[in-house]
Design goal:
The chain is α/β, with parallel strands linked by helices. The protein contains twelve helices and eight strands. β1, α2 and β2 form a beta-alpha-beta unit.
Amino acid sequence: MGEQSSESESESESGQRRSDRRPVVSMILATNRVSPFLAEALDSMAGQSFGDMEIIVVDDGCPDRVGLGAVLARYPDLVVIRREAAGVSSARNAGVDHARGHLVGFFDDDDRYPSDWVERHVRAHAARPDVMLTYGDVRSIDVAGRELAVDRSGPTDVHALHRREVSIIAGSMVFRRDSYIGAGGMNPLFRLAADLDLVLRLAGRGPVAYVPGLVRDYRTHPGNVTRRHRELVACIDGILRMHRAAAIRAGRDDLVADLRVGRAANGRFAFWSAARAAGTALRSRRPLGAVGELAWAFRVAPTAPLSWLGRRLPARRDP
């Protein structure tokens, strides 16, 4: 996967000594900042009930290396990899390259996890050695940690994933390291939504398993990538187009049809995101900003309103 810089190699070698014993799980955090929630994220992962694990932090060119180092120094068992900035996908690939666990997961610098989160993933993989990845639900929280909403994923398969009926994001899953490498890892060409591309490729190699009741806290704040909705919509569409071309080459008409539905779902997401941004603009007394958001939505997904309406109208029954 991604090449390691000489700086990354030298710092990882001179950092904490790693024992010869291979852990079961490697949890990887890639960051390029000193998040105000970083310590909380690390506390939630360091406090996991499953002890046979390593925690890897990839410093992807953080400009405040001293500040980041001060936070990381509170956790002496971390494996820290420092490298030149290359993007989150490349940083995550670097973490997997260094990982020694046969199971691997990602977590983010602004989220938090219940203490049995890793343990439950491990049990699910032990029960189903054939699965490519395990995943759970996502609870949205605000900056103070208060619950906003819970997104229940439920069981899924390769078709529902291509149709975008279920979304599995990077910080909500644990996967087999060999499967990740076999699938090619995360594509660094995608600035956003690289986890969607990865999940579709992994689901094409084998089943995925839902773990009921497993919830990760996803923190909503102005720095979330979901706030960059225009770029996110464009990246998702590009990924779905790429997988559609691959499905056509492979003669998978079923997946081509699924991806058509998935692109329609992305159009509805574009309108929902634009409507939310327009509402924010109006509350901030920026009417031109609101008009611009809606104009963008109609430009990128002109049929989305009809698609949304069609999903909510009752199905017609033949006499």
